[in-house]
Amino acid sequence: MEEKVITRAEQEVKRGGKWRYPKGYQFSGRSGSGNNWALGYAGYNQEARDSFLDILRKQVETCDLLSGFLMISGLAGGTGSGLGVVVSEQVRDEFPHASLMHQTVWPYASGEVIVQDYNAVLTLSHLYKASD
Length: 132
What we know:
This protein is mainly alpha-helical. It is 51% helix and 11% strand. Strand 1 (68-74), helix 4 (79-94) and strand 2 (99-105) form a beta-alpha-beta unit. It is globular, with a radius of gyration of 15 Å.
């Protein structure tokens, strides 16, 4: 969600030259969730969720045959975990016949986010239901 993170990633991709992210296919906001799972899960309004789904629909329309999605998100913080669950649930609802797989980035055993264990448990309990 954090715009500065998305911008930095785009700049690194341009320097590498191997990947290309077309304009209009990135979704970012002004701030993240501050390691708060509940804020990531319930804090973003419906307009933000609709914007994300519009971007996803545009990508799906370019496919000849949609077989599934691979979701990549983190478990420790609030945005990757809480918002990642919301996105996964929306993808599942919007495209019920597509496979939905998740690749998660696990937190360090003694990471910098004090609530990372709680965030991970909450995320995994939801991803279990949304994944194939």
